[in-house]
Amino acid sequence: MTAVGRAILEAVLLGTVGGLISVQITLRRLPFFTLAMTHATFPGVVLAAIAGINLYAGGGLFGVLIVLGVLALSRRPEQGTSTAIGIMLSAGFALGVVLLSARDGFSKDLTAYTVGQILTVGNSDLLAVTVVGLIVVGLLAVAGRQLTFRAFDPSAYAAAGYRPTAIDMALLLTVEAVIVVAVPAVGAILAVAVLVAPAAIARLWTHDITAMTAIAVAAGAGSGLTGVLISTSYDVAAGGAITVVTGTLFALSLAATTARNAVTARRGRRPAADPATPVTAGPQMKTVEETG
Amino acid sequence: MYQTFIEPFRFPFMARALAELMILGALAGTVGVLILLRRLAFMTDALTHTVFPGVVIGYLLAGEGGIFWGALLAAAATAGLLTLLTRNRAVTEDTALAVLLTTFFAIGVVLVSRESGYTADLTAFLFGRILTVTPQQLTETLAVTALVIAALVLLRRPLLARAFDADGAQAAGHRIGLLDLATNAIVALVVVASVRAVGTILVIALLIVPAAAARAVSDRIALIVPIAAALGALAGWAGLTVSYDASIHHGLRLASGGTVVLVLITCYLIALAAATTRRRRHSPHPAPQGAP
């Protein structure tokens, strides 16, 4: 397979995996947490590169430490979660940068880690994305309903006898696994786009979880493919191109759904507020209440 | 002591770097208290990234002089788009921020990746060029500082009222929308003024960490603000000294911006530890969770 072929395959796989997990990330309001984890995975990757161990193992291990750090800091009453995340984010990124700056070829390495190098992915990277993808599919198949239940009604979830800590840990670790495979391809800063934007696009069109997941996967895979094609034909950074495509798709969806809602409201078929009702008040909420 | 902490700054370029860093540290520490009270850490981080395309476009159109205005325009666009996006109730604020952050940053990356000195430009943006600060830049920084401090002094009562009790502030006749706009403008101005000299990574840390550390040791605004400002300024000094000392006397190149952040994080951890021991000494029983 050529480099471009591998890059396209990687981008599509990553878009699919990101699209799948992004629904859970937006439902649980985790975008800022995800951003912090992407920045914090970065020093792990640098340390692994310096120590000469597997980049994925190093980044993943460090990311887990950061998850524990945020959880510990946000338990302090006077430190809000958002401050705790902000602190871990800047600490992680600064540590990565200082470690990198002590080495030669600093600027080039830094660019690779912050905006990614999808054109240099090898077969092992493709294998890693596939394995993580299977983990995500496994998690959603086994615990998808539980995750949604937990997202919509935490107290009913606990009352029903489930263990919130265990499922939270499983979700956060899976998110971290996706980040670890996304960073080499699209970079620490732009990985958030892969992990959040697909669900943001899908959420505009529907509030049915299954349909949201399908749209998110299509949006993620589609922008991956288009982004790499644009990047190779116009010679611009691939990670940047993928993200700009995702952002454009979001802007178009926002415009289209706003127009659609305005039209339906004028025809008076249903009240204007309905399509814009937050997902927590949607039909899923009712099912949760019935079961809980 | 003299040799380590005073000697390096006898070079004019080091003295200017120190002055710029200390002014920005004090300014960001002060504004950071506002960010902490209003829980705006994620918005601040988004702003530090969304000014990037402005910096790139400003530089491409008008050279060094265009950077400030480009960044300012991008910051204004961010604030405007964020307000617009969150009006749609299907888009939560954190999702809107994540999408804006990555899309804007990606536009910057795509634009800059067309240039030949791509990696060096990106590095300069992430780290700033603190050692090449000109006397004119110092004057500009002082002007922004005076403006922001004046705004904070004038608006301190309504801003505090808004932070602690939004409904009460509205009932008291304060215009919430205008106050939020003023807050966003203040944060944006600090980000824009500092990004060229100290880079994104350091800006976000300066805006979040000193205020959080000050908050850990005190819960009185009258004490938190001066502690945060002093900590921001002193960490700038210490970080610059460590990074200079390491590169001159130990042959170890450490990025100055990253070193300042690590000094700040160390101060934060010390403050947390001090607060914990003090609380233990004052009350034999641990404070209840969720206590103010």
From TrEMBL, chain A:
UniProt keyword list: Membrane, Transmembrane, Transmembrane helix, Transport
> Which Pfam families does the entry link to?
ABC-3 (PF00950)
Bilayer-crossing residues are 7-27, 47-73, 85-106, 126-144, 181-202, 209-230, 236-259
Locate the coiled-coil region(s) and give their ranges: none
- Localization per Swiss-Prot or TrEMBL: Cell membrane; Membrane
- Provide the residue span(s) of the region labelled Disordered: 265-292
**How does the protein's chain sit in the membrane according to the entry?**
Multi-pass membrane protein
Top-rank taxon of the source lineage equals: Bacteria
What the entry lists under Gene3D superfamilies is as follows:
ABC transporter involved in vitamin B12 uptake, BtuC (1.10.3470.10)
| Family stated for the protein in its record | Belongs to the ABC-3 integral membrane protein family.
Q: What is this protein called?
A: Metal ABC transporter permease
Q: From what organism does this protein derive? A: Actinoallomurus vinaceus
Automatic annotation (TrEMBL), chain B:
UniProt-listed InterPro entries: ABC_BtuC-like (IPR037294), ABC_TroCD (IPR001626)
Record keywords = Membrane, Transmembrane, Transmembrane helix, Transport
UniProt-annotated location(s): Cell membrane; Membrane
What is the topology of this protein in the membrane according to its UniProt annotation?
Multi-pass membrane protein
* Superkingdom of origin organism: Bacteria
Keyword Nucleus assigned to the entry: answer is no
UniProt-listed Pfam families: ABC-3
Q: What is its main location?
A: membrane
SUPFAM superfamilies, per database record: ABC transporter involved in vitamin B12 uptake, BtuC (SSF81345)
Kindly list the residue ranges recorded as spanning the membrane.
Answer: 17-37, 67-85, 97-113, 185-209, 221-240, 252-275
Q: Which PANTHER family match?
A: ABC-TRANSPORTER METAL-BINDING PROTEIN (PTHR30477), IRON TRANSPORT SYSTEM MEMBRANE PROTEIN HI_0360-RELATED (PTHR30477:SF13)
Per the record, the similarity remark reads:
Belongs to the ABC-3 integral membrane protein family.
- What name appears for this protein in its UniProt entry? Zinc ABC transporter permease AztB
